[in-house]
């Protein structure tokens, strides 16, 4: 079990309170309009990592940075996802370097690696975090992940127990996937969410076929028009034989967050329509790990206004004031 952390309440207006409204706003392009100095100074980077893996990202540097923030998007998100750009902009304005990472096959990176992306590819994400930590070794590193990126962030916390990164200062997991096997069936029950992810994943797979036509073809898209159905057909491109094995490869297990050596916070909403907050009850957590469970906020959202910073933007910035 876990103890809830006491924090400032998040009480959105009635118009912004519904979970689907919050979740819908998280990806809306109008929120990233306006000046964004982080994006203006960003440099595109390709990280050459062990085992021949190449991952892309963008680095925005401050002349006198207080620290480096590394942002991990959700599944089928990218360095240009609205919630990534808005969070990055806010923390860049607070004086931080910001590194935004594309997972394999995310953004426009499909041509960089032959193999397809799946949630079990943790080692390469760890290698990317380690590289960013080393390249900015004179500064504290903060890792912030959203949804599947939040799941990766929690696995970074777990890995850091045995392979500590000296300058890893804090980890935040926003709306993280805890139990992928159970969460995977939820989008197919919600038409808007299902349509969103099916379109994003189908487009991503088509880009992979264009990059490696000798390895893949679009026949994978033929058949059951559900996320679970497509996942079952996708298994043949992975080392997994069953859906259970596939999803459990990136599950956060009950004792994973015991005995951490870096402060780690999970921020979730009880009304999250994508990653159930009820899965938090599966976890055994002790300090320095903490759970913030809010009544409202949807998925990757937590908006108090349409254009201003999110609740978690302000919360994280306040926690980093000592840097």
Describe the protein's architecture and organization.
This protein has 323 residues and is of the alpha/beta class. The chain has one domain (19-178, 251-319): Rossmann fold. Helices cover 31% and strands 15% of the residues. It contains 10 helices and 8 strands. It has helices spanning 19-26, 37-40, 82-93, 122-135, 148-160, 180-183, 191-211, 227-234, 243-248, 311-319, and strands at residues 43-48, 54-60, 68-72, 97-101, 141-146, 168-174, 264-269, 289-294. It has an 8-stranded mixed beta sheet, with helices on both faces. α3 links the parallel β3 and β4 (97-101). The longest helix has 21 residues, at 191-211. It is globular. The chain starts with 18 loop residues before the first helix and ends with a helix. The model has no long low-confidence stretch (mean pLDDT 95).
Strand order of the biggest β-sheet: 1-2-4-3-5-6-7-8
The share of residues in extended strands comes to: 5-15%
Distance N to C terminus: 31 Å
Query: Roughly how many Å is the radius of gyration?
Result: 19 Å
Low-confidence stretches: none
What is the CATH C level class, in words? Alpha Beta
- Taking all residues together, what is the mean pLDDT? 95
Shape label: globular
Tell me the total number of β-strands: 8
Helix/strand/pairing category: alpha/beta
Approximately how much helix is present in the residues? 25-40%
CATH architectural name:
3-Layer(aba) Sandwich
Q: What is the number of helical segments per DSSP (H or I, 4+ residues)?
A: 10
One letter per element, helices H and strands E, the order comes to HHEEEHEHEHEHHHHEEH
CATH topology: Rossmann fold
């Amino acid at each position: 079990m876990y103890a809830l952390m006491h924090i400032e309440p998040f009480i959105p207006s009635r118009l912004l309170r519904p979970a689907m409204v919050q979740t819908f706003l998280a990806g809306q392009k109008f929120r990233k309009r306006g000046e964004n100095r982080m994006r203006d100074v960003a440099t595109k980077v390709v990280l050459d990592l062990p085992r021949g893996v190449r991952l892309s990202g963008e680095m925005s540097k401050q002349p006198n940075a207080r620290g480096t923030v590394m942002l991990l998007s959700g599944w089928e998100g990218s360095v240009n996802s609205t919630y990534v750009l808005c969070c990055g902009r806010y923390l860049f304005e607070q004086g931080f370097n910001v590194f935004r990472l594309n997972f394999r096959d995310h953004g426009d990176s499909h041509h960089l690696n032959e193999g397809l992306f799946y949630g079990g590819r943790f080692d390469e994400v760890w290698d990317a975090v380690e590289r960013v930590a080393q390249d900015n070794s004179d500064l504290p590193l903060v890792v912030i992940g959203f949804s599947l990126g939040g799941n990766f962030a929690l696995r970074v916390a777990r890995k850091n127990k045995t392979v500590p990164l000296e300058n890893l200062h804090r980890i935040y997991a926003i709306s993280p996937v805890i139990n992928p096997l159970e969460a995977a069936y939820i989008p197919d029950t919600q038409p808007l969410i299902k349509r969103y992810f099916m379109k994003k994943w189908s487009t991503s797979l088509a880009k992979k076929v264009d990059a490696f036509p000798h390895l893949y073809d679009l026949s994978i898209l033929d058949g059951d028009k559900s996320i679970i159905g497509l996942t079952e057909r996708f298994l043949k491109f992975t080392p997994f034989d069953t859906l259970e094995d596939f999803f459990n490869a990136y599950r956060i297990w009950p004792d994973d967050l015991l005995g951490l050596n870096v402060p780690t916070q999970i921020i979730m909403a009880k009304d999250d329509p994508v990653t159930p907050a009820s899965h938090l009850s599966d976890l055994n957590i002790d300090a320095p790990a903490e759970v913030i469970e809010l009544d409202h906020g949807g998925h990757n959202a937590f908006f108090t206004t349409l254009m201003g910073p999110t609740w978690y933007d302000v919360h994280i910035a306040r926690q980093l004031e000592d840097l």
